[in-house]
Amino acid sequence: MTSESAVCKNHPDSFCYVCGEYVSAAFKKPISEVHKKAYLAYFGFGICDQNKQWVPHFLCKNCHLGLLKWFNDCGGGLNFAKPLIWREPHDHNVDCYFCLTRIDGATGKVEYANVMSVTQPVANRTPVNTQPISYSAPSPVRVKYIETHLILPNELDLLISGLNLSERSAEILVKTFQEWKILAPFPGFHRRKVAQVM
């Protein structure tokens, strides 16, 4: 999508980078360095493509407060284990989240697009993603669904103790799982639980 957001029906900055929800101007917060650090600590990977026009550059009030409260050990957290993942759309009529999301200005009702250019957030209490992805394309498309399981803190503890790993081996295992992005992000887990294991 070379002309990027200039032709989108809804501007990308009208949506939250983390959850993908529509955000009115009064409730959106620009992504800051603190947000980037909190996001990285919470999800295990960083905010990407902020130099691109096809991703939002703001957070909604709930994601802003949830991330910052969690990051500052004041409670908080989010309702999902994985955030919305953005990919560059290639066709405004088929896979552009911003063009295909319908916002009724009179009622405020929002009908979010279910397109291939985004992967929807995964709920905190559901570490296995089995939700099918629907895609309306001009020609038939086959999509392979793969179930993934994120390793929970208690499972990691059982694995490390069951394998009778040394402190150094446990540290290597945890770092490898973090790189593979297979550890379920639970508030406090990345900073406290892993620190205890290491």
- Mean of residue pLDDT values: 78
Gyration radius (Cα, Å) is 19 Å
Roughly how many Å apart are the termini?
44 Å
Largest sheet, if any? 2 strands, antiparallel
Number of domain units? 2
Number of strands: 8
Structural class: alpha+beta
Textual characterization of the structure:
Helices cover 29% and strands 9% of the residues. The chain has 198 residues and is an alpha+beta fold. It has two domains: 4-123, no CATH class; 153-197, no CATH class. Strands 1-2 form a two-stranded antiparallel ribbon. Strands 3-8 form a two-stranded antiparallel sheet. Strands 4-7 form a two-stranded antiparallel ribbon. A hairpin with a 6-residue loop joins strand 5 and strand 6 (110-111). Helix 1 packs across helix 2. The radius of gyration is 19 Å and the shape is elongated.
